[in-house]
Specification:
The chain is α/β, with parallel strands linked by helices and 334 residues long. The protein contains eleven helices and 15 strands. Helix 1 packs across helix 7. This is NAD-dependent epimerase/dehydratase family protein.
């Protein structure tokens, strides 16, 4: 990383992951330019508006660049803007691929024009299968093209664009995050951790989909941002483009997660098995990766390690939602 004080561009900087990245880069002495359409915002951004180290631009990144915006002189660009979440993406069916590629392509071009390093956020959904998933593994594309598959295929294409653009001078890497969770994550996207926590705090039934045998390895947002602020430069110097970032030590079945949330929060909530389609509609689908555990190779070779255990992650999320409502989930089912 260059000397503190340089400017970092974060697309989607008012979203869950994006806002944690903003905070992390501010804490390391950087200025931050946030470009966010508010489509997935979990905060209003007023604190950033009042911070002289921040510039908040509330429009789509592709519109910003089309209107003449650029990345000249910036320290780096973190492209985190995207529709995300198994429930949130449903309304974009048939358009989701265009959304993802339509924002990523101009970001790549603008980074190349400005000589700015790029980190693009992809998704562990790209693997398309269960197991311990390594960056070198082949990707599987099922033939049933539901919305989750459209999302995964679009993210895969965006990865390929970053990788191939390195031949033309782009300094870029791709992060495949595995089940990031923590404060600010909204249940409105269909994310399981904030849903279980908010249900437990409200004494409502904790709703487990698909029997609860799915395995997820949850990583704290703070561990994820620590990789970017501490190890992105080392990653850019290496040959590996695709980097898994997750916490296999936090792997847990969804049923065990429900029981853990209930116990840690001393909640009276019953745990009930339900069909996800009864909550999110007939087009809701479970991930192809029923068991989704990251193989950490490239990230740990660089010296990074995840540190925040699952119980701490649950309690941090609960503390956040004891103090405030879920901004995005006012009309979402609980």
């Amino acid at each position: 990383m260059r000397a503190p004080g340089g400017e970092v561009v974060i697309t989607g900087g008012l979203g869950f992951i994006g806002s944690h990245l903003v905070d992390a880069y501010l804490a390391t002495g950087h200025r931050v330019r946030i470009i966010d359409s508010n489509a997935g915002a979990v905060i209003d951004g007023e604190n950033y508006d009042a911070d002289p180290r921040c510039a908040v631009i509330r429009e789509r990144i592709e519109d910003y660049l089309t209107a003449g915006g650029d990345f000249t002189g910036v320290d780096r660009v973190i492209h985190a803007a995207s529709y995300v979440g198994p429930a949130s993406i449903l309304s974009r069916a048939g358009r989701l691929g265009h959304d993802i590629i339509g924002s990523t392509a101009p970001v790549i071009e603008a980074c190349m024009n400005a000589g700015a390093p790029l980190c693009m956020f992809s998704s562990a959904e790209v693997y398309g299968r269960s197991g311990v998933l390594d960056e070198k593994d082949d990707i599987v594309v099922p033939t049933q093209y539901n919305t989750r598959i459209e999302y995964a295929v679009a993210k895969t294409l965006a990865e390929a664009m970053v990788s191939n653009s390195r031949r033309h001078g782009l300094r870029g890497i791709v992060i495949r995050p595995f089940n990031v969770a923590g404060a600010r994550q909204s249940r409105a996207g269909g994310f399981v951790m904030p849903t279980f926590v908010q249900q437990a705090l409200a004494g409502r039934p904790i709703t487990v989909f698909a029997g609860g045998d799915q395995v997820r390895a949850f990583i704290a947002a703070g561990d994820l941002t620590g990789f970017l602020t501490g190890y992105m430069d080392l990653a850019l110097q290496g040959d590996e483009v695709i980097i898994n970032v997750g916490n296999p030590g936090n792997a847990v079945t969804i049923m065990d997660l429900a029981e853990r949330v209930k116990s840690l929060l001393a909640s009276p909530s019953p745990i009930v098995r339900v069909d996800g389609r009864s909550v999110h509609g007939p087009h809701y689908a479970e991930a192809e990766s029923f068991h989704k555990i990251p193989a950490l190779r490239t990230a740990t070779d660089l010296g990074w390690r995840p540190r925040i255990p699952l119980d701490e992650l649950i309690l941090t999320t609960a503390d956040y939602y004891r103090a405030r409502e879920d901004r995005r989930a006012v009309n979402a089912p609980l």
